[in-house]
Amino acid sequence: MTRPLIICALTVSVLLLGSCDAFRRLAGRPTSKDIEAKREVIRLEQEAYQARLDSLKLVEKALADSLEMLDRIRQSGEMFLDLGSLRGATASGLKHRYYIMAGAFANADNAAWLASRIADKGYEVVRIPYGNGFTAVGVSGEDSLEKMWEALQKVKAEAFCPKDVWILVNE
Question: How far is the C-alpha of 79 from the C-alpha of 165, rounded, in Å?
Answer without folding.
Answer: 8
